Amino acid sequence: MSFKKFIPKPIRRIALRMLNHIQLLNYYFKDMNRYSKHSFDFSNSKAKRHHETDLIYYYHKIEKGLSLPNPRIGFGQKVVNHLLSILNHYIKQYGWDNVSIAALNTLYSYYYFNEKNDLRLNELLNKLEELSKTIDAISRPTVGGIDEVKKVDIDKSNIDFKEFAFSRYSIRNYAPGNVSIDLIKEAVYIAQKTPSVCNRQPWRVYVYSNEEDKINILKYQNGNVGFGDGASKILIVTSELKDFRGPRERNQSYIDGGMYSMSLIYALHSLGVGSCALNLAVSPQTETELKNTANISESEVLIMMIAVGNLPKKLNVASSPRRAVEDVIAIN
To answer: Could you list the residue range(s) of the whole structural domain that residue 28 is in?
Structure first.
């Protein structure tokens, strides 16, 4: 016999609200604990990813300074000295890679900017030359620093983005056949241009093609019934907490991960691939189970799943009317 009918509805509503608040506090505590465990400033032990992010954080400060309309001569020397220090530590521990070389090239750009403006930082140059001697010059990429861009080149790339955006729909009806991994890689490559805090690029994309894997993964997402099993591939986008630092960046993983996910969806659309964003608003327990099934690290935040498939010649899509511009814009 159910005791609900003996409890007045107002009391039941109050009890439900209290239970929801308790659950919300529990979820917040688990999120805080995970962020404290893995993010840069709070983590007790630093992995290579932490040190990579530290290099990016500081060399991007210099990149931003160099890209200003009128950079101050000799700006940011404390940042430069700190970057040199952590770069030396990084090279001793991990050797040269794209991140450390980008840091070195950014420091060279800083030196040449100042030299051009009659400030010769000879001590800095000597340190950079010593570091450069340990790199294989043939395999050294030219990443880092600043690039000159011309307005005419940006203008050449103009597209009718309104038409492009309005032609994208959440696709829940897929044509038979496999979406090639090369198309997925191309979409990921395009989406890499997504901006992120200090260019840390915390995102990762997991691709699942095996039928059994897709079934096991989709059972943790409750919005794919009736079409998920027809997708050629299931993608999971995550964001790495090791790339973030301090209390103020506690939510940045969701911002950067969400921006990247939209870029990836648009990139798939540009390649003629249908996709549907699938939310991953799940409990901590479900998140843990999904990560174990999908082989995803505890330090990564789940952003969303994306179902991917070929476009049929004709299909029905949800109308999904949008709010009026006047409802979402505030002009001050």
So the answer is: 4-38
Number of domains in the chain: 3
φ, ψ at 55 (rounded to 5°): -60, -45
* Pair 195, 115 in one domain: no
Let me know whether 30 and 73 are in one domain: no
Strand partners for 160: none
220 lies in the same domain as 278: yes
DSSP 206: E
Any idea what DSSP says for residue 150? Answer: -
pLDDT digits (tens, 9 = 90+) for 24-68: 999 999 999 999 999 999 988 899 999 999 999 999 999 999 999
Q: How far apart are CA 245 and CA 35, in angstroms?
A: 9
Burial of residue 309 (CB within 10 Å: 0-12, 13-18, 19+) is buried
DSSP track, 65-87: HHTSSSPPTTTTHHHHHHHHHHH
33, 72: one domain: no
pTM: predicted TM-score of the whole model, two decimal places: 0.91
Strand order of the sheet with strand 233-240?
A: 203-208, 233-240, 300-310, 273-279
